[in-house]
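Our consortium's second objective concerns turning raw sequence data into structural hypotheses that experimental partners can test. To show how far this objective has progressed, the report includes one record in full. It was chosen at random from the queue rather than selected for favorable results. The single chain below, 157 residues long, was entered without modification.
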Amino acid sequence: MPIQLAKQNEVIDLLGGLLGRSLQSGKGSEDDLSGASSGAVAIYRSGDDLAGICYCDLQISNGAGAALSLVPMGVAQDGIDKGVIEDNLLDNLKEVLNIASQWFHDSSEKSVKFEDVMVLPCDLPDELKSMMSSPANRLDLEIEIPAYTKGRLSLLS
């Protein structure tokens, strides 16, 4: 049975709580993410099986990474402008995405665990590409992090 995803309000409540901000959100586009060329892909596993992916575009990756430890927006904007996620912001983003394993629910009662983040562009394993192009479940959001950025976050399982 596929992994079930959190609802929009659960995602926003957890992320907003972690970042200490009241977030605005709306429905994001449902396009094929297998061709994404920037941002971050968090990998979640249930046992040895791929359980889900959280894709964050460059804006959300840098913005959430900065907002977590109150790094100035200018630092996040520099990364966005350069098309990168700086190491300190990536470390912060990993902390957020580790806690975000709560957004994935395995109906067999196995726990879903955060494995790692892959920063795009990179060569993604075939199992990630497959899930990114044809997920069983998905939640696509446009999220605004006040005083930081607005961008895309997608959960796939």
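The partners drew two points from this record. The chain has a mean pLDDT of 95. The domain at 4-28+36-156 is CATH 3.40.1550 (Chemotaxis protein chec). Both points have been shared with the crystallography group to help prioritize constructs.
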